[in-house]
Design goal:
- The complex is a heterotrimer of chains A (about 500), B (about 280) and C (about 500).
- Chain A is built from 20 helices and no strands.
- The two termini of chain A are about 35 Å apart.
- Chain A is globular and about 75 Å long.
- In chain A, helix 2 crosses helix 20, helix 9 crosses helix 12 and helix 10 runs antiparallel to helix 11.
- Chain B has about 280 residues and is mainly α.
- Chain B folds into two domains: about 35 residues, no CATH class; about 210 residues, MetI-like fold (Orthogonal Bundle).
- The radius of gyration of chain B is 24 Å and the shape is globular.
- With about 500 residues, chain C is α/β, with parallel strands linked by helices.
- Chain C contains 20 helices and eleven strands.
- In chain C, helix 9 packs across helix 18 and helix 17 packs antiparallel against helix 18.
- The chains are: A mainly alpha (about 500), B mainly alpha (about 280), C alpha/beta (about 500).
- Chains in contact: A-B, A-C, B-C.
- The interface between A and B is large, with 117 and 113 residues.
């Protein structure tokens, strides 16, 4: 294809600016990338193809891939990877909330006088608790009380700076140091988490066993479940209205339905138990949810609504609904089983050593790390870029705080949310390697092995890099598909 | 002209906000408090039940310097991270400019390719990369630590997004005045992308400061170890000197806190963009 | 706050300033690097860098000086506990001259050709397989060629805290005891040591050593020709059922989940030793190197016993082998290190620091080793380690058709699932065997070069099975598995029944 001199000049100029970056990119990224792609179809094994051993390299074509899909644990590891990503909406939301709070703090100054008064109050309170309760058990409370007091005073003095630094603190020890730190924290005997939880759980067990059980085991779960049902009902109603009004396309309808079907299925499964009956009940619940959202759009709209209208927004809504309802429903389900559990005595879980709790433990750590992280900084930068006139106009129109957020802040932040979502999906699917290597070695019986750690085991422990490359490219395909969907529908959401 | 500073209703609500922030920050720094307190304990006390040590072992901090050449390791980490940040910001901003502002054939397709390369797990590229380093004789050298990390698609992506949000009216005005793309880049776009550049700098610096696996396999001489590799010394086969390790980690965090505290003020004031809109 | 204001420093200047600062800093760094070149030849040793290695280095220099060899400089290159650094550097040509190839690292390193064949070179310095423990030979010699020499050998026996036993009025077990006695004494112990009002649980042992117990019953990981995984042997299933009983019901040892709390991040062992010292464990399953941890604490009366057996007494040993890099620039100097490991100076150093067993058994018969000054509370325990390593020690299970790291991980995962109640003992055993056999198939498929020896081994296996079926004696050349060689010798099933302990690879 011939290019006009003008476009050739443009190409040259474009490439010139690109040059420094792209040269490094070609050398250190593209070359290994292509090499690993080729290797995925061979039987490359560092134990047989290296300086010292010169076996011939064979092309095995798709053998590596079929080996992967017949691996007994592949779906387990895939499930682990997705499970760990469930915390993403909470993480992104958390960093947004943090950014919002910090930006507000930066704008509004607290008078030193009020700060000092409040600080003194807190300090006196904690000293009181200390002298009353005795040094040992309440030393911790006193410590945190004094810390709070100090932070309050310094925070008021420094404007937003102190809080911003404190919130970003988790990121300062990112990487191996964080994992080592949290491994110590999660130690069932000597780690502070269990040491704080144990007496609390003991007291809870005595309360439940001593007759308070019916409150916690029946009333509270019933209330929570009731709340869940109400929320689901509202969401279903909202979906049906939107579908009838032609605001949602067919694919979007499905996504929205998933958003209510999944939590209902999960909750039912937790309540009924991990058995054949549980699966059946969960499937029925999910099916009912899917069915209730199937309404016909108003004939006026039937031919005019594209399949993917409003998909971006609904997907986010679905993710949020799933996370929130699953969490609330989980608490309710635990509550129902509580009296039985308490009879044996409640103990804090073994966190990293327990098959069930290792993943939630990782997710808690990930949430902590994600709130005070790069995403928060990005949001802060984005928030300061929102033109103040928009807010002023909203104030003039008498908008409430909620409306300001939904109609100004959130849409203005859409490009950043989009960027963060794409990067989070990419990192989430690829992540877990350093964590598994440092903290759990893949977890009790493979419960914290994600696909990327699986690649490490297969590639570096056994030396079968051809196979590991094949797994990596399968992972790539997964990431690519999800990112593509994200980009396609997210972009539309960003733009409409 | 209306400012965004506190109106009376906002001033009244500052205290609850600060209290909330205070509480939340306690949750964020909780593990750190534990870490710092542990760094003052004796080894048997580490496994004990109390957060607060009975005897504050200040000498732990000095002992760290006896066990490992700590200052050297921090210096190495800082130097490598600084170089990587410098190179990355420079090359990524130029590349981002190319993708965001210049028009040239195949531009968007190549950008998508850039993006795609981020999606492959870095692990499988490790060995080919390593053998490339061996081929160039860069094993056990600072250059080998800096070069592979200095060219990243992530930086380009991030800066492109920032640059896209700058209205093109500015460069068009400059072009009409006869400015070359090079001048537009340096005089118009870059100054306006300050928040983006600063953000990328912070991200890259932090990320590289903590990189562990690549320095581990690249470096053989003790004098060139970066900090995460150096901290391995506390993890011997017979037991981990947790208190010393925590002391070392605490000390390693201090340079980062200083850097961040100095830079974060500039980060938040992205008022330049507002100037354009006004 | 205004809407626009000029920054004081334009971006270009910022870049320039940063660049200058960086260049200056780099210059300072390079100038301050110690001499890269040294007037002496440089050797690198890839090992965990703890203080004891520094003492070893000094001893190495002294040894070389004593024998009149030229001085060298030995640099320690921190390789942490996993294999990746050694492999990546090794296969790329920049490995360290002296390679720590102990335990699970030996097989992959040797397979990859990273280790030099030192059979002749080591013989020049006297570091031959017959100098060390017979049980260690299986991790040094492959296909008749030697690839390493141990720098220590760990015999995993059961340390006994005599004070704890006396406190609860239980008799200390005899040095060689059976599985039945283990069960009986164990139940007595936990009953006596855990009255209802006890606050913290006292366990009989820190760990139930199922690997040597399994071997003592006659089954192990692999069959005689290492072609098939035999973890689904009924004897193993029976053992697993008993172990489950001991751990879950009798609580003789902490469950695996509780044990995860002590998982090897380094601090795990220190914690275990502390608990043993305090009396929460009656016995501690660890090598002689537990002394390094125990000597930090107040002395208690210690002794040691072998692992309980079910007919065939044996002890599980780990070999800390050291090899030479195949791509080393000065192999002659590196091999001298292996010779150093046989020296009196080095072996006494190991004996004194308590870092497991010195590689040359001869030095465990000295006063320095048996009765270290200042540690009277330990006297009587040391010979248990050295003698059992010498007489009944068997190395780690290893088959050329599957990686030991995989074998180990599969077995541990299956065991964990059993203890957690997710699998029954039988399911756990069958699952482990199935997975390992699947790995063997995959290895053979991907590495056709192994097929001929595998076919030949299968033929031999049939011969062995045929001979055993009719009760005839089996010639030793048919058997590859070092465990089975000892087991057959013990039972008198070998054709030319040697009375001596089998040491060399035939």
């Amino acid at each position: 294809m011939s290019m006009s001199p003008a476009s050739r000049r443009q190409l040259g100029m474009g490439l010139l600016f690109l040059a420094p970056n792209i040269l490094g990119f070609l050398a250190f990224t593209l070359f290994p990338l292509v090499a690993s792609f080729g290797m995925a179809f061979t039987d490359w094994d560092v134990q047989r193809h290296n300086l010292f051993r010169d076996d011939p390299l064979r092309f095995v074509w798709f053998d590596n891939f079929s080996l992967l899909f017949t691996h007994p644990d592949f779906y387990h590891f895939l499930g682990n990877t997705f499970f760990l990503m469930m915390g993403l909406p909470a993480a992104i939301g958390g960093s947004l909330v943090a950014a919002l709070l910090l930006t507000r703090a930066g704008k509004s100054r607290l008078a030193m006088r009020s700060a000092i008064i409040m600080a003194t109050v807190i300090f006196l309170l904690s000293s009181l608790v200390l002298t009353l309760g005795g040094a040992d058990s309440n030393g911790l409370l006193f410590l945190f009380g004094s810390l709070m007091a100090t932070v309050l005073v310094f925070g008021a003095w420094s404007g937003g700076m102190l809080y911003r630094t404190l919130f970003y603190l988790p990121h300062f020890t990112a990487g191996v140091a964080t994992f080592v730190l949290w491994k110590k924290l999660y130690n069932p005997q000597s780690g502070p988490i269990n040491q704080t939880l144990a007496p609390l759980l003991e007291r809870l067990a005595t309360v439940v066993n001593g007759g308070g059980g019916w409150v916690l085991g029946a009333v509270l779960p019933a209330l929570l479940l009731g709340a869940v049902f109400v929320a689901v009902g509202l969401q279903v109603k909202r979906l049906r209205r939107k579908i009838r009004d032609g605001e949602l396309g067919s694919i979007t309808r499905f996504a929205g339905a998933i958003g209510v079907a999944v939590p209902m299925g999960l909750i039912t499964w937790w309540l009924v138990g991990d058995s054949g009956l549980g699966w059946l009940a969960a499937a029925i619940a999910a099916g009912v949810m899917l069915a209730t959202t199937q309404v016909k759009p108003d004939p006026l709209w039937r031919n005019r609504v594209r399949a993917a209208t409003g998909l971006g927004g609904e997907m986010i809504m679905a993710m949020a609904v799933i996370t929130v309802l699953a969490a609330v429903g989980g608490i309710a389900a635990v509550g129902v089983h509580l009296p039985a559990m308490a009879a044996d005595g409640l103990e804090p879980p073994n966190w990293l050593g327990s098959f069930q709790w290792s993943k939630p433990a990782i997710m808690i750590m990930a949430l902590w790390a994600a709130i005070g992280s790069n995403n928060m900084i990005l949001y802060m930068a984005g928030l300061t870029n929102i033109a103040p006139e928009l807010y002023e106009a909203a104030d003039i129109d008498g908008a409430s705080r909620c409306q300001r957020f939904c109609h100004i802040t959130w849409p203005q932040l859409a490009p950043i949310t989009f960027f963060i979502a794409v990067m989070s999906v990419i990192h989430g699917l690829q992540g877990g390697f350093e964590m598994a290597r440092t903290m759990t070695a893949g977890g009790p019986a493979g419960s914290t092995t994600t696909l990327s750690y699986f690649i490490y085991i297969e590639g570096f422990e056994t030396g079968r890099l051809g196979y590991a490359s094949a797994v990596a490219w399968v992972l790539f395909a997964l990431v690519f598909t999800l990112s593509f969907l994200n980009v396609k529908f997210g972009n539309r959401y960003v733009n409409d | 002209m209306l400012t965004t500073s506190a109106q009376p209703s906002e001033r009244r609500s500052a205290l609850p906000l600060h209290l909330l922030l205070c509480l939340l920050s306690m949750a964020m720094i909780g593990p750190f408090v534990w870490m710092v307190l542990t760094s003052f304990k004796t080894l048997p006390e580490v496994a004990g039940e109390h957060w607060v040590p009975h005897d504050w072992q200040w000498r732990n901090y000095l002992e760290v310097f006896d066990v490992i050449p700590f200052t050297r390791f921090i210096w190495n980490s800082l130097l490598v991270a600084a170089w990587v940040t410098f190179l990355q910001v420079l090359t990524s901003s130029m590349a981002a400019f190319s993708f965001a502002r210049l028009r040239w054939p195949y531009r968007d397709r190549i950008f998508f390719l850039y993006l795609g390369t981020m999606m492959l797990p870095g692990l499988v590229m490790l060995i080919p990369n390593y053998q490339l380093m061996v081929h160039f004789g860069l094993v056990d050298s600072y250059l080998g630590l800096v070069l592979p990390a200095a060219f990243s698609a992530f930086g380009t992506f991030l800066l492109r997004q920032f640059m896209l949000s700058i209205p093109s009216a500015l460069d068009e005005a400059a072009a009409i005045d006869g400015a070359t793309p090079w001048q537009i880049f340096w005089q118009v776009i870059l100054p306006l992308s300050r928040p983006g550049l600063l953000t990328l700098s912070i991200f890259t610096f932090m990320g590289n400061y903590h990189s562990f696996f690549w320095p581990l396999v690249m470096i053989k001489s003790v004098e060139k170890y970066t900090l995460p590799v150096g901290l391995l010394h506390f993890d011997s086969s017979y037991g981990q000197a947790t208190n010393l390790l925590m002391a070392a980690v605490t000390m390693s965090v201090i340079p980062l806190i200083i850097v961040f505290a100095l830079l974060q003020r500039h980060l938040i004031s992205g008022i330049q963009v507002g100037a354009v809109k006004g | 706050m205004g809407y626009s204001f000029r920054r004081k420093t334009p971006v270009k200047r910022l870049f320039l300033i940063s660049f200058l600062v960086l260049v200056t800093a780099s210059a300072v760094t390079f100038w301050s690097l110690p001499e890269q070149q040294s007037d002496r030849p440089i050797l690198y040793w890839a090992v965990m860098p703890d203080p004891s290695k520094l003492a070893v280095r000094e001893a190495f220099y002294a040894w070389r000086a004593e024998l009149g060899f030229e001085p060298v400089e030995l640099r320690l290159d921190a390789a942490n506990r996993d294999l990746t650094k050694k492999m990546i550097q090794g296969v790329s040509g920049v490995g360290s001259d002296i390679v720590d190839a102990g335990g699970l690292h030996m097989q992959p390193l040797q397979n990859a050709g990273v280790l030099m064949d030192v059979t002749e070179a080591a013989a020049k310095y006297g570091a031959t397989p017959d100098k060390t423990y017979p049980g260690a030979v299986s991790e040094m010699v492959f296909n008749g060629r030697q690839y390493s020499f141990p720098r220590n050998v760990v015999a995993n026996a059961l340390w006994v805290n005599v004070d704890t036993f006396e406190r609860h009025g239980i008799e200390v077990p005899s040095r060689r005891w059976t599985i039945e006695e283990f069960e009986r004494i164990g139940r007595e112990f936990v009953a006596a040591a855990n009255p209802p009002e006890a606050k913290s649980r006292v366990y009989f042992t820190s760990y139930i050593p199922r690997k040597p117990m399994r071997r003592s019953l006659g089954a192990s990981y692999f069959n005689e020709t290492l072609t098939r995984c035999t973890l689904d042997d009924p004897r193993n299933i029976e053992l697993l059922e008993r172990v489950r009983q001991w751990v879950v019901v009798d609580q003789l040892a902490p469950s695996r989940e509780a044990e995860k709390a002590f998982e090897v991040d380094g601090s795990g062992f220190r914690l275990k030793a502390a608990l043993f010292h305090r009396g929460n464990y009656g016995m501690l399953y660890l090598g002689r190197w537990a002394l390094i941890l125990l000597r930090e604490l107040e002395p208690v009366k210690l002794t040691a016993v072998e692992t309980p057996h079910g007919g065939f007494p044996n002890i599980d040993i780990n070999v800390g082998g050291v090899g030479v890099y195949a791509g080393s620039k000065r192999p002659d100097l590196a091999v001298s290190f292996l010779g150093f490991l046989t020296s009196e100076r080095y072996n006494n150093l190991v004996a004194q620091t308590g870092d497991s067993l010195p590689p040359v058994p001869r030095f465990t018969e000295t006063e320095t080793y048996l009765r270290p000054a200042g540690h009277e509370n330990e006297w009587g325990a040391h010979e248990v380690f050295s003698e059992s390593a010498r007489d009944i020690g068997i190395g780690q299970p290893s088959s050329p058709y599957v990686l030991s790291s995989i074998t180990l991980r599969v077995e541990v995962d299956a065991y964990d699932s059993m203890i957690a109640g997710r699998l029954t003992p039988e399911e756990s055993a069958v699952e482990a065997a199935w997975r390992i056999n699947r790995e063997i198939r995959i290895t053979l498929d991907s590495n056709p070069a192994l097929k001929p020896s595998y076919e030949e081994a299968l033929v031999r296996q049939e011969q062995i099975d045929a001979l055993r079926a009719v009760g005839k004696l089996v010639p030793i050349e048919l058997i590859d598995n070092p465990f089975h060689r000892e087991y057959y010798r013990h039972n008198g099933w070998l054709a030319e029944s040697p009375s001596e302990r089998l040491g060399d690879d035939v």
